[in-house]
Design goal:
Elements (H helix, E strand, L loop, with lengths): L6 H10 L7 H22 L8 E5 L5 E3 H15 L4 E6 L6 E2 L9 E9 L10 E9 L21 E7 L3 E6 L4 E7 L4 E6 L10 E3 L10 H12 L10 E2 L5 H11 L2 E4 L3 H5 L6 E2 H14 L3 E3 L16 E2 L1 E4 L1 H12 L1
Parallel strand pairs: 3-5, 11-12, 11-13
Antiparallel strand pairs: 1-2, 3-4, 5-6, 6-7, 7-8, 8-9, 9-10, 13-17, 14-16, 15-17
Helix pairs in contact: 1-2, 2-3, 4-8
The structure holds 2,5-anhydro-1,6-di-O-phosphono-D-glucitol and manganese (II) ion (MN) (2 copies).
The site of one manganese (II) ion has 4 residues, from strand 5.
């Protein structure tokens, strides 16, 4: 244990620095942490808890839901909806936004989440995660609509993820740097173990699904082609590659040792009428806030992701994020 500060202590101390803070945000973060502990428990038990395999249903995105997708979504809705800190919630797994239960007061915040990211990894026992984003609810506090969620990423009050890997971690930002907490399973607390996480500006490691190569646009083809040419190519150095197929795991690796992650737009996605693979509100925005707060950069290749004005809660976008100098190079290739 590097520092023995708990997540709750840390958030309370952060909130004390803000005049007029009511403590409601601290309580919301506590609820999110509780839900992630419950999801972590389900993920850890795996086959013992009969949570592997398909749920036999499809989500709004037309993807087959895993049992654990459905369970994680239910946990997020239940734990975060009952205490009066949120006004409504939106999830990758739900067609419409979720209103809070009858009799519960409207809270100040809107909660947006991907309850289980990388869920295709569940059955093969590889890292998965939960991604979340907190926005302000409209002042009126009457039942929010999907429109109220359509705020650019720059408006996020907080963004974070839980990673269910060899250890369970929670990494989050409230716009004042990025901090990582490791779940101590014995006492059930997230402990600050990774203060002030920083992404190195340079890297020799990229993450992209290479099987889509023939569908990519020329700037992405050029960038990856130059990386793959290694010492003999224009970059004059060798690159390494990783692809976990869990964005949470890829972003965590980048926060730990640098790297660039890309899920670009390609011909295959375009032919399906999609603007990308990853979802702006549940994946791209929260991860972009975290990456920028850790000194990295995040773009669609053409625009800064956090500046995009969402048109639909389920909108998809191209994503290029990570070590600043590499992301800037990819952006430059898009301009040339
Ligand atoms: P989800 O499990 O929430 O649908 O997200 C999976 C996402 C992301 O985490 C990952 O980077 C990517 O989809 C994997 O895509 P491929 O299946 O094309 O590798
Ligand atoms: Mn996801
Ligand atoms: Mn998911």
């Amino acid at each position: 244990m590097i520092e023995s500060k708990t997540l709750t202590q840390f958030i309370i101390e952060e909130q004390r620095k803000i005049s007029g803070a009511t403590g409601e945000f601290t309580l919301l973060i506590n609820d999110i942490a509780t839900s992630c502990k419950a999801i972590s428990d389900g993920v850890n038990h795996g086959a013992l808890a009969d949570v592997l395999g398909s749920a036999g249903s499809e989500n709004v995105q037309g993807e087959t839901q895993k049992k654990m997708d459905v369970l994680s979504n239910d946990i997020m809705l239940h734990v975060n909806g009952r205490n009066g800190h949120v006004a409504a919630m939106a999830s990758e797994e739900m067609d419409e936004i979720a209103q809070i239960p009858d009799g519960v007061e409207y809270g100040k915040y809107l909660l947006v989440f991907d309850p289980l990211d990388g869920s295709s990894n569940m059955d093969v026992n590889v890292s998965v995660g939960t991604i979340f984003s907190v926005l302000r609810a409209p002042e009126s506090m009457s039942s929010p609509t999907a429109e109220d969620f359509l705020q650019p990423g720059t408006e996020q009050v907080c963004a974070g993820y839980a990673l269910y890997g060899p250890s369970t971690m929670m990494v989050l930002t409230t716009g004042n740097g990025v901090n990582g907490f490791t779940l101590d399973q014995d006492i059930g607390e997230f402990i600050l173990t990774h203060p002030n996480m920083q992404i190195p500006e340079d890297t020799q490691e990229f993450a992209i699904n290479m099987s889509n190569q023939r569908f990519w646009e020329p700037p992405v083809k050029r960038y990856i082609d130059e990386c793959v040419q290694g010492v003999e190519g224009p970059r004059g150095k060798d690159f390494n590659m990783r692809w976990v197929a869990s964005m949470v795991a890829e972003v965590h690796r980048i926060l730990t040792r640098g790297g660039i992650f890309m899920y670009p737009i390609d011909e295959k996605l375009k032919s399906k009428g999609q603007g990308g693979k990853l979802r702006l509100m549940y994946e791209a925005n929260p991860m972009s806030m975290i990456v920028e707060q850790a000194g990295g950069a995040s773009t669609t290749g053409r625009e800064r992701i956090l500046d995009l004005k969402p048109e639909d809660i389920h909108q998809r976008v191209p994503v290029v994020l990570g070590s600043k100098n590499e992301v800037e190079r990819v952006t430059r290739y898009h301009q040339e």
